[in-house]
Amino acid sequence: MCTHRPSCPAAESTAVESPEARVVTAHVVAAHPEQGWNLLCDGTVVFDDSGELRPDGRVVAPRRTPAGRLVMAA
């Protein structure tokens, strides 16, 4: 599915397990910000809440910051 060079690793690869690796390698091929998701060139659907749906059907839960770590503006 990926047509850019260098090609990104497959969605099943352990090289894409971290969100930072996915951002660097996979490109957005269909953006739907009004619906809160993007389709990446490796077939992964990435949601605005940082959750993912992989091409093989696996679900990656959103990576959320615990409430205690959030900084509140005064």
Give an account of the 3D structure.
This protein starts with 18 loop residues before the first helix and ends in a 14-residue tail after the last strand. Strands 1-2-3-4-5 form a five-stranded antiparallel beta sheet, with no helix packed on it. The chain is mainly β and 74 residues long. It has one helix and five strands.
Give a concise summary:
With 74 residues, the protein is mainly beta. Helices cover 9% and strands 22% of the residues.
Low-confidence stretches: none
Question: How large is the share of residues in beta strands?
Answer: 15-25%
Average the pLDDT over all residues and give the rounded result.
76
Fraction of residues in helices?
A: under 10%
Query: SS-based structural class?
Result: mainly beta
N-to-C CA distance: 47 Å
Largest sheet: 5 strands, antiparallel
What are the secondary-structure elements, in order, as H or E? HEEEEE
Give the spatial strand order of the biggest sheet. 1-2-3-4-5
What sort of overall outline do the alpha carbons produce when their principal axes are compared?
elongated
Number of strands: 5
How many alpha or pi helices?
1
The gyration radius over C-alpha positions equals 14 Å
